[in-house]
Amino acid sequence: MNIGITCYPTYGGSGVVATELGLALAERGHEIHFVTYDRPFRLDHFHQGVYFHGVEMAKYPLFDFDMYTLALASKLVEVVQYQKLDIMHMHYAIPHAVSAYLARQILGAENIRTVTTLHGTDSTLVGLEPSFLPLMRFALQNSDGITAVSRFLREKTISTYQLERDIEMIPNFIDTEVYAPRESCKYRELFAPGGEKVIVHTSNFRPVKRVPDVIRTFGKVLESLPAKLLLIGDGPDRSECENLCRELGICEHVRFLGKQDALVDILAASDLFMLPSQSESFGLSALEAMSCGLPVISTSIGGIPEVNLHAETGYIAEIGDIDRMARYAVELLTNDAKYAVFSHAARRRAVEVYDKQRIVPLYEAFYERLLAS
Ligand code: GMT
What we know:
Blueprint: E1 2-6, H1 13-27, E2 31-36, E3 50-54, H2 68-83, E4 87-91, H3 93-107, E5 113-118, H4 121-124, H5 133-141, E6 145-148, H6 151-160, E7 168-169, H7 186-191, E8 197-202, H8 211-222, E9 227-232, H9 238-248, E10 254-258, H10 263-268, E11 272-275, H11 284-291, E12 296-299, H12 304-307, E13 314-317, H13 322-333, H14 336-354, H15 356-372
Parallel strand pairs: 1-2, 1-4, 2-3, 4-5, 5-6, 6-7, 8-9, 8-11, 9-10, 11-12, 12-13
Helix pairs in contact: 2-3, 3-5, 8-9, 8-13, 11-14
Bound molecules: ligand GMT.
Ligand GMT binds near residues 13 and 283.
């Protein structure tokens, strides 16, 4: 098949999933055309069968506001026509599903199938804004196929937007050969020279991720055992988090690593992953950690409990329950036998349920069903 993929190309879970999906489909012999305003950040070198088409933005003094939705629609028309696409797969509904709708109207519905994959805030937050709600509902009703990355997101979207159609649940996936436990890791000595336990968190430091909860929980863990905290990523809450570390007097035990490409190496040098989010449709970062054999301590929100199983691959607490999260962390980090059981279960779940070899064929089958309909 010839497949077009549109996503947000910068850092972020939906862009990662879209790019990894494109690369995996190309490995399976499909021709993939990314259509976005910038090269997706994981497409940093040549891949056989993968092409990139940049969306150019016209500038004109009258245009006070960005016309990306329209520019993307025009570019999609061009790419579908000249690259003979069968499918346009839009990741993150806003505004991509609207551009796909416009492009399909121009091309004729018989010439292309559109797929929208919902990732989270496109449905649970942004799409609900009064300025987007009617458009979002219309775009979803009129996409040829819709997928959601968790059961939670599927059900929530159908009920919130009162959709008169179904949504296919295809979960996020991981390359479990790349995200794998390592016997030894060069960074371990660097981060924990005294043999301390290492807790890690990665996110975009937005309020919804509740990174201060990670720091407060870690502060409590430190009362029971020597430990280090690694914080990967960057975003609006970073300064508040650095201040909190100073306030709690724990700066020497916390490292802010910023955005990192060496994620697997850092996860492999860590013992426990924390995801205390207040909104999360899936929690790809938790899956990445689990695949490296890290148990996860998370909240019970959204789709997280579908990924992280309580008392099996990690523990689940209510939002903001710092005492409980700290107790769980101490329990796992001070009991080697229990830790090993949880670590193996986390890795096993990633391999048995979320490996890319299992999930990518589900997208292929979905495309094939749409093309046959
Ligand atoms: O809203 C975000 O956090 C951004 C969004 C993205 O595009 O990166 O993340 C969502 O998609 C990820 C990939 O499917 C999921 O793992 C995240 O749980 C989801 N975030 C939220 O639902 C808050």
